[in-house]
Amino acid sequence: MRTSVAVVLIFFTFMVFCDTAFSMDRYGYYSGPGDEQDYRFIVVNRPVNVQGLTGLIITNSAFTQPAGHIAIGISALGENSNVPNFSIVQGAATLTVGLTDRVEVGVKGKMIATNIGSSATREIGKGDSDFLIKWRFSSQGEIMPALAFGLAWTFPTADTSKGFSEVEYEGIKLMLIASSEKRILDDSFIGVYFEGQVVLNDQLHRTGASPFADKYGVLNAGLLFPISDNNRLQAVFEYNRVFKKDIVTLYEQNYSAVTPGLRYVTEHFNLSVGVQFLNKEQTGYKNDTRGVGTLSLSF
Question: Could you tell me the pLDDT band of residue 40, with boundaries at 50, 70 and 90?
């Protein structure tokens, strides 16, 4: 635990220092007078996602919460599988804070409910917890997208006896994120987002064998554009992929998915819902769908 805390504190200090050295604009969306007004009028809101950072429904974006802003969110993912026969719901609560104009931090806690075939196998309990930090080291320009680097540290807080653990010691996610939001037709916009992750579960403790020790990759990409006159109702399309994952945790291993969704936002409110169409690669699992939704308030 002391090693985990030390690594997080060192990384946190480094990112705040770099932000102070490289900070340029507030939102990384426009450059020039009226940035904040244009951002609020066109994009309306950049809420937090199921991961606990600013983004789409699942995909992280390179943008961050403005300095001093706080976003509180709840999210849920639910799946009801026929082969194998199980259902699982993961509910999460997140708190995300804009520390500077380029750095945000977040915490995430999960509750999980599962049911394997009958009510006699129903289980409800805690999942693992995350601390997250994201630094936008390059703001969007005329051609280049905004770029950000992120880190998530997973702490083993789950009910292991119920099968809800994803790590025994710690999990590390390293994220590289690119995003671009372009104004079109004077009063509209289109956003393009890409994220790559390297996930390292229980890789710092070589002395003891962990049943969760794993290294794998995650790719997320998405599109966002408004479909109402006031830009508050927005369409979301995402592609999600997990690959090279050897250990099944929470009934999940390797898969690819497309996730269409809708988002309604005001300046301080977000409600997003989507459906993931899953193409599962593990033996004994059939393709399935999963519902996902987020609700958040910022102030």
Answer: low
Q: What pTM does this model have?
A: 0.86
Largest CA distance in the chain: 62
- Among 17-31, 126-140, 174-188, the range of highest mean pLDDT: 126-140
d(CA 35, CA 137): 18
| CA dihedral of residues 57, 58, 61, 64 (deg, nearest 10) | 70
Q: Rounded to 5, what percent of the chain is helix, strand, coil?
A: 10, 50, 35
Residue listed under structure tokens 């705040």: 16
pLDDT digit string, tens, across residues 177-190: 999 999 888 789 99
- Per-residue tokens: 65: 């919460």
> Are the C-beta atoms of residues 103 and 64 closer than 8 Å to each other?
yes
Among 177, 165, 90, 77, smallest CA distance to 133 is for 177
In the chain the first and final C-alpha atoms are separated, in Å, by: 33
Pairing of strands 123-126, 103-115: antiparallel
Instruction: State the sign of the Cα–Cα–Cα–Cα dihedral 37, 107, 292, 136.
Output: positive
Separation between Cα atoms, residue 152 and residue 43, nearest integer Å: 26
Q: Tell me the C-alpha distance between 161 and 112, whole Å.
A: 13
